[in-house]
Design a protein that fits this description.
The structure holds two protein chains of two kinds. Chain A is α+β, with helices and mostly antiparallel strands. Chain A contains eight helices and four strands, in the order ααααααβαβββα. In chain A, helix 2 crosses helix 3, helix 2 runs antiparallel to helix 6 and helix 4 packs antiparallel against helix 5. Chain A is elongated and about 65 Å long. In chain B, the strands form three sheets. In chain B, strands 8, 10, 11, 12, 13, 14, 15, 16 and 17 form a nine-stranded mixed sheet that branches. The longest helix of chain B is centred in the C-terminal third of the chain and has 29 residues. Chain B starts with a helix and ends in a 7-residue tail after the last helix. Classes of the chains: A alpha+beta, B alpha/beta. Strand 4 of chain A pairs antiparallel with strand 1 of chain B, so a sheet runs across the interface.
């Protein structure tokens, strides 16, 4: 992703969010975008088709209309049409991601990514959520990921902040410390 | 390398006893764009300009541009190890390099890591690469000379400790040679030298290191090399690292230091590359707007500290390469205006065999005169004016006009002076030797020596004098003065030597005359 893409993504996502806010439809649009995201995920070739210069604009619009008109609101549909018109469909996943962030922020909710080494047991996820909510002082939307590579412990990521308390990280630090000592003596 | 396991278990024990479970909280961003040692990062909202960033695989960088929605960063080290989309950690630190006595005699890269194949060094101290120049209260005027060991420079363009003297000239005019001679001449002078090679061929740097090693100069020298193969960011920070190393000796050890930046035109070019890749707007010759500050903040760190602050010094010898003698180009004018004088080398003189090819007319030293040794001041006072008059007369004589005997004599004298100031490479002279040589030139004795034999004559006389009357040169070296009494003694020795040589050459002539009668 280029830095200009970031700027474009911001503009599109912000505009859509503002427009949805005016129509009291932020939640509806959020749902719509999740639907679109699901479709994109399921059909890998869809974005390729929509960004390809080989097909005409009408052709692309037709396809999106028939595929999605029954499932998403008019506002979201119009937004997709604008994206097709300006040939910015490639940015769609990023725009959906950014819209999600704005939506969370609007509700005073922090999206938090938590990585653990094994699937959590019953009640653990709830406990983690309440603990993080208490620490941050606001609602939390927990996104759990399981990655056996971290060996143990937990990595919590909230926006730019990362709390790395994994065994993998601690061992890495210990190895670096020992190596720096050994190199120094030699 | 096979680690010693008992040692390691000791370290682990120590670590365990001091171990406190502290939470590792860090700020991270994501690399969105990566090319040519430059990264654009999304996130890192709290990052500060100049903050060190930690990329994956132990690669480090520095935040340069803080933009509305991204951060432009330069990467120090191997940027091919960084991937797009990877996490970047803000460390909350400023860029620093290891410094210390352990680094003397070593060849280092821009991050002060050894690249000479020798053992890894662990130094006790670190210094920030960028640091503020000392203020007025910290300084004192330049008062001690820094001897280059070159007659033409020490006599007419004297450099003081703490001065910034630019060496400027076209390619292949002997700029580096002057800097190397100066480093070699610091033997026993208690000066720590740092030679920073920026954007040079790696083979040229290897050659320089070899020369310094052969001359035994590596004992007091550190070489920092950012060759042309290094990325632009590495070339960009090299002089600042070198300066930080020299500053350590100046501030912490109260030592005199000499820092050679070879050369700042390449440094400017690498900074231009970096700036353009970071999309900073280009200005004159496509250099960015802060190109002046780039060099001024580096050279301003040179100083002679006041006695209250230890009295250490940092002398800078920046080198700038010109194209076709154009000193009015952008970078040369910038650096000329920052430094306290310049040694201007001319290609025509170089090809005419006048080496070092210093153009005395436009070379100046703005502050070094105060620091010149009294003995040198005495003999060299008239030299500069004489040579200027000689050059003027030489131009006039080219017109083919008949010259009066006075002008003729002056021209002859000038020719001999120029010959006398020639000096081979890697043969620096002590002050005493220089004073005696220049004094010889001021005497009439040379009038009888053919112009092409002058240099030879002076060398031989000096050798003879050092053998017969070593006390004379020693006295000048020790006291720094050249009394009238001593001048008379040297004159007497000179007379003795000339009579001796004239007898000998007479004898040589008799013996060596080929016998034409035998076939």
């Amino acid at each position: 992703m280029m830095s200009t893409d970031i700027r474009l993504r911001e503009s599109y996502a912000n505009t859509l969010f503002a427009l949805a806010g005016e129509n009291q439809a932020t939640d509806a649009v959020k749902e719509d975008l999740e639907t679109v995201a699901g479709v994109i995920k399921g059909e890998n070739d869809l974005v390729k088709f929509l960004t390809s210069p080989y097909f005409s604009r009408q052709c692309k619009e037709q396809l999106v209309m028939t595929a999605l008109s029954a499932r998403i609101s008019e506002l979201t549909m119009n937004f997709l049409m604008v994206l097709i018109k300006h040939n910015r469909v490639g940015l769609l996943p990023e725009i959906i991601f950014r819209y999600g962030q704005l939506w969370d922020a609007g509700r005073g909710c922090y999206p938090v990514n938590v990585t653990v080494s094994r699937p959590l047991e019953q009640g653990e996820a709830e406990k983690l959520t309440t603990d993080i909510e208490a620490a941050l002082g606001g609602a939390v939307r927990l996104e759990l990921a399981v990655n056996p590579d971290i060996l143990g412990g937990v990595v919590i990521r909230c926006g730019d902040k990362v709390i790395d308390n994994s065994l993998h990280h601690r061992l890495g630090t210990a190895v670096k410390t020992i190596l720096s000592h050994v190199k120094g003596r030699k | 390398m096979k680690p010693d396991f008992t040692e390691i278990s000791g370290i682990i024990k120590q670590e365990i006893s001091q171990y406190k479970s502290k939470l590792d909280v860090s700020t991270v961003g994501r690399v969105v764009e990566l090319a040519d040692g430059i990264a654009r990062i999304y996130g890192l909202d709290q990052v500060m300009v100049g903050e060190v960033l930690e990329f994956e695989n132990d690669v480090f960088g520095e935040a340069f541009n803080l933009e509305e929605d991204s951060v432009g960063a330069v990467i120090y080290g191997d940027y091919t190890k960084v991937r797009e989309g990877a996490d970047v950690k803000a460390t909350g630190r400023l860029m620093s390099v290891p410094v210390g006595e352990e680094l003397l005699g070593r060849v280092l890269n821009s991050l002060c890591e050894p690249i000479d194949g020798g053992p890894i060094v662990q130094t006790s101290a670190r210094r920030f690469i960028e640091s503020d120049a000392p203020g007025i209260a910290y300084r004192q005027p330049v008062c001690q000379p820094l001897q280059t060991g070159l007659k033409c420079i020490d006599s007419m363009i004297p450099i003081g400790r703490g001065q910034r003297e630019l060496i400027i000239g076209d390619r292949k005019t002997g700029k580096t040679a002057i800097a190397l001679d100066t480093i070699i001449n610091q033997k026993g002078q208690n000066v720590i030298c740092v030679y920073v090679a920026i954007g040079q061929r790696a083979s040229a740097v290897a050659e320089i290191v070899e020369i310094l090693r052969k001359c035994g100069a590596m004992a007091w020298t550190t070489v920092i090399a950012a060759s042309a193969a290094e990325s632009a960011p590495m070339q960009y920070i090299a002089p600042y690292s070198g300066c930080a190393l020299a500053e350590y000796f100046m501030y912490e050890k109260q030592r005199d230091t000499l820092c050679v930046y070879d050369d700042l035109s390449k440094h400017a070019i690498s900074y231009r590359q970096l700036s353009l890749l970071l999309r900073r707007p280009p200005g004159r010759e496509a250099y960015p707007g802060d190109i002046f500050y780039l060099h001024s903040r580096l050279l301003e760190r040179s100083a002679k500290l006041s006695d209250k602050h230890g009295g250490g010094s940092l002398t800078a010898l920046p080198i700038v390469e010109t194209l076709e003698g154009q000193i009015s180009a952008y970078i040369p004018t910038n650096v000329i205006s920052i430094t306290d004088g310049q040694i201007y080398l001319v290609r025509d003189l170089f090809h005419a065999g006048i080496r070092p090819a210093v153009d005395v007319g436009i070379s100046v030293s703005r502050v070094g005169g105060h620091a010149q040794v009294a003995a040198m001041k005495k003999v060299a006072a008239k030299l500069r004016l004489d040579l200027a008059a000689y050059r003027e007369l030489q131009n006039f004589a080219k017109l083919g006009t008949e010259l009066d005997p006075v002008s003729r004599a002056q021209l002859d004298r000038g020719d001999r002076m120029v010959e006398l100031l020639k000096q081979p490479q890697f043969a620096p002279m002590t002050v005493g030797e220089q004073v005696v040589t220049i004094f010889t030139g001021s005497k009439d004795v040379l009038r009888d020596v053919p112009v092409n034999k002058v240099s030879d004559f002076a060398t031989r006389f000096l050798q003879w004098l050092m053998k017969e009357y070593p006390a004379y040169v020693d006295e000048i070296n020790k006291t720094g003065t050249f009394s009238d009494d001593l001048a008379d003694k040297v004159t007497a020795a000179l007379t003795q030597y000339t009579s001796l040589t004239s007898q000998r050459s007479q004898a040589d002539h008799d013996w060596n005359t080929p016998d034409t009668s035998t076939p």
